[in-house]
Amino acid sequence: MNVSNVIPAQKSVREFAYSTLKEQIMKLELEPGRKISESEITKNLTVSRTPIREAFQRLAQEELLVIYPQRGTEVSKIDLDHVEEARFLRENTERGIVKEACLEFSEEYLFQLEMNLNMQELCDKKQNYSRLYQLDDEFHRILFSGCKKDRIWNLLQQMNSHFNRLRILRLSSGMEWDNIITQHKKIYELILSKDTDKVDEVMEKHLKLVVTEKDVLKEKYPDYFK
Question: 124 and 181 in contact (C-beta within 8 Å)?
Fold first, then answer.
């Protein structure tokens, strides 16, 4: 047997199990507080138990699963302290990013933002909110990339699991996207006009939206929160 041909396949199964399970948790297909088992997920994904066990451990380290020895495993509930911590970090980091964008954003990245905004408006019109959520993330990623701060963006994503689940919950609750898109357009226009003071103010308000709506969401989905 050629071991070199087997190892990549084993790695692929492990990554498939991890990424699929994480996506189901992040999309709330496996809702906060739900009890799950290795045997259940093994059956659903039709893979062996070992990669599922490894995926459980990785997701527990990321605070998306809670493993209770001898009692079972459940999807972690949304922790609003974690949400606020991630929001605080994003707010203070992105306020610096947009001010830097005012000074050094290239035409290429301005074009990417403009195209992204056009797609946001189209998806809002078509009520394609799943794609709109992706475009929202992409808008912010472009800001970091245009300032050559991709590694910081990737680092932020490691802390955003509870924050992003709250955003998904917001989407599924039917709250309007108009305000978010309007703020994105304003950020773009202020970068164009190089207004560092005003863009800082708008970004601060933009990243506080989740805070203003968390009480409404907690009341509507009380079992999803820690």
Answer: yes
Predicted local distance difference test score (pLDDT) of residue 169 = 86
User: For residue 35, what are the β-bridge partners?
Assistant: 74
3-class SS at 15?
helix
Q: Rounded CA gap, 157 and 90, in Å?
A: 10
Digit-coded pLDDT (tens) for 155-164: 998 888 898 8
Q: Where do the H-state alpha helices sit in the chain?
A: 3-26, 38-45, 49-61, 80-104, 107-126, 129-146, 150-157, 161-172, 178-192, 196-206, 209-220
Is residue 9 scored above 60 in pLDDT?
Answer: no
Residue 212 in 3-state DSSP?
helix
How is the chain split into domains, by residue range? 3-75, 80-224
Instruction: Pull the structure tokens for residue 184.
Output: 């994105």
pLDDT at residue 6 in the model: 41
Q: Does the 3-75 domain belong in CATH 3.90.190.20?
A: no
CATH class (in words) of the domain with range 80-224? mainly alpha
What is the pLDDT, as a whole number, of residue 140?
96
Other beta carbons within 10 angstroms of residue 144's beta carbon come to 20
How do beta strands 65-68 and 72-75 pair? antiparallel
pLDDT value for 1 = 37
Strand partners, 66: 74
Q: What is the DSSP letter of 64?
A: S
Q: Where would I find the H helices in 127-193?
A: 129-146, 150-157, 161-172, 178-192
